Amino acid sequence: MRKLDLAFVRNQFPAFFEPPLETLAFFENAGGSYISAPVLDRLARFHHQRKVQPYGAFEASRQGGAEMDEARARMAALLNMGADELHFGPSTSQNTYVLAQAFGEMLGRGDAVVVTNQDHEANSGAWRRLERRGIEIREWQVDPQTGSLDPVALAELLDDGKVRLVCFPHCSNILGEINPVTDLCAMARESGAWSCVDGVSYAPHGFPDVGAMGADIYLFSSYKTYGPHLGLMTIRRALAETLPAQGHYFNAGCLTKRFTPAGPDHAQIAAAAGMADYVDLLHERHFGSPDRATVSAAERAADVHGLMRQHEIRISSPLLDYLSERNDLRLLGPADALVRAPTVSVLHRRPGAELAAALESYGIMAGGGDFYAVRLLEALGIDPAHGVLRLSFTHYTSQADVERLINALDAIL
Q1: Average of per-residue pLDDT across 362-376
Q2: What integer best gives the mean pLDDT of the chain?
Q3: How much is the pTM?
Q4: Which domains, ranges and CATH numbers included, belong to the chain?
């Protein structure tokens, strides 16, 4: 099996060569990843050469629009979706809010929406507010010991046929546990409900094949996937055509404008193609130049996804073993790297933010707090004000970084 060329990977991220970042180990990737060079290059080019209203008749305007269209087409292809099924918004929180407004107009009394208490608040709060419109909100609750979501409990919530939408995370931004998205989406579909999957905490570890997994809606944040500060969401065409448009009335006939009442920055949309550039760079480095006619963008993304996950599993296992063996803290989520993303949170007698501050003097950049997962922490019996220490990394993290982190934890704990 091919091994990730870490030196090549890190060379694609200028932050690793910028003082003082080059001397530090970055473990707050769940809050936002470093941006890749292909994205930076596209962003700079757009600002230098195309910073005009796009889609006009003159050359700079025409090229600007073409680059925005390229980003949409290539990112949709990576996700195995149609170009008109990909929507750009200012953030995932904003995209979810807009979706909730659309569903609020379409659903009515007697309809129900399932949410979880495992989610980041962005994929919970906006849906819960639909209760003000008379829509029933059903909470799919986590196990109070493990934080896991039990599919059997979801089946019980779906058994009366009133649920129209099921909202849940691909993985928790606290626990890291990967939920069985394909199975859960199938359960929702068989009951007559749509599915909305928050992929913000999973997509940084490899772009998923959204088309194959069956999610009706899939959302993630590109500033956590080595790109610009945008929210990307896919909505299956039939659902997007059914939902009430939320943009300008005269744009209702254009599928990609129906859910962008305030469009994001043009340069950032164009720069999103740099994420596809990055995937293709990694694929060519590890698998050779593909025949684009026979190896699809989604297949290339799957190959790269596998490389990323293999590396992440290998370097996160020693950390999970170390934390599991300590009796002075509580590791949240599974101890098995195979079933989780490398977003690792621990509870200690000292507040999470205090521990993160202590790590800073050892050159470790980490985070502490509730990370907008207040409902989950409360369900686990944790005071959100006390918070947890979160250690999150991705495929560009090195084994040396993890060893440095373990040594720093030994020192502060």
Answers
A1: 98
A2: 97
A3: 0.97
A4: 6-36+298-412 (3.90.1150.10), 44-275 (3.40.640.10)
